[in-house]
Design goal:
Helix content is 55%, strand content 0%. By secondary structure, it is an all-alpha fold. The radius of gyration is 20 Å and the shape is elongated. α1 (10-21) runs antiparallel to α2, α1 (10-21) packs across α3 and α2 (27-34) packs across α3 (38-51).
Length: 84
């Protein structure tokens, strides 16, 4: 199942990336043809160059880390106060 916000499936991304990387299409032309932004086309082409077909798979949108996260102790105290 494709990601809910993904404009193309993995197959569509692969086709776009191959057009740019293997067939030499300009990014703007490929982006227009596949109805995505040139930035997105560049991202998929770069992933294809780096990871091949495996780079076209959906990725989680979850952050890798949360540097501004509230400390666990503070979080527990807030929850405790809310429940009172």
């Amino acid at each position: 199942m494709p990601h809910r916000n993904a404009p193309l499936t993995e197959t569509g991304r692969l086709r776009l990336a191959r057009c740019v990387v293997e067939d030499g299409w300009p990014l703007g032309r490929a982006a227009e043809r596949f109805q995505v932004s040139p930035t997105t086309a560049q991202r998929w082409a770069d992933r294809y160059r780096t990871h091949g077909e495996a780079g076209m798979a959906d990725r989680s949108s979850r952050p890798h880390h949360s540097p501004g996260r509230t400390p666990s102790r503070t979080e527990r105290r807030v929850i405790k106060v809310r429940l009172l």
